Amino acid sequence: MEDNDKTKVVTGTQEPKDKEKTNNDVPEFTPEQQAYVDRIVSGIKNENKRKLDDVTKDNDKRVKDAVQEQLEERERRAKMSAEEKAAEDRKKLEEKNKRLEAQLEQRDRIDYGRQIASQYHIPSSMIERLIGKTNEETVANMKSFADDYARAVQAGVDSRLAGTQQPQLGSQAKIDNTKSLSDLSLEEQTKLYRENPDLYNQLVNR
């Protein structure tokens, strides 16, 4: 009898004191609140459907345009002789090779420009802007920039040693702060860099 009683104590479950607090009841809305929630959900669904329809239409149009373009190209090529096709293919291949060569040359000039820039202590933000059409032009651009900057620094040092205000190198660089650095000529960029470095850095980061 004692063992049975112990078993009952161990295996028995205790009724919760407050069933309402233990149940995850779904909140009840008034008809007005439920209607408001339904309108929001319906609006979201309609907006998502509209966006999906727009994307689908756009993709369908692109596919149709691509197919139409291929059909027209095939029709055009079908009317050409074998010699004309071969000549056109050679021309396309030559144009592609020229583009690749130009990209490789530009990459080589940039790599070379980085080496020269390190020698003249030119900031990385200026490297591509100083790259010329040839390596010789790149060297000339970077040397000119470095010389101008060195003169500006020396002028500042001299003015401080003399105890006078730093003189302006020509007219102060006045640049519209709504412009980007690419809108300026190389001469304007150089002048701005040495006379107003704060504004120059703002334009670089824009």
Q: What's this, in brief?
A:
The protein has 206 residues and is mainly α. The protein is 74% helix and 0% strand.
Describe this structure in words.
The protein is mainly α and 206 residues long. The protein has helices spanning 2-11, 19-22, 31-78, 82-120, 124-130, 135-161, 186-195, 197-204. The longest helix is centred in the N-terminal third of the chain and has 48 residues, at 31-78. The model is unreliable at 6-13 and 164-172 (pLDDT under 50).
Helix content: over 70%
Quick one: overall form? flat
Count of DSSP E strands? 0
Continuous helix count = 8
User: How would you spell out the order of helices and strands?
Assistant: HHHHHHHH
Q: Mind summarizing the main beta sheet?
A: none
Briefly note the structural class of the backbone: mainly alpha
Our Rg estimate from Cα atoms comes to 37 Å
Spell out the key features of this protein:
single chain; 206 residues; mainly alpha; 74% helix; flat
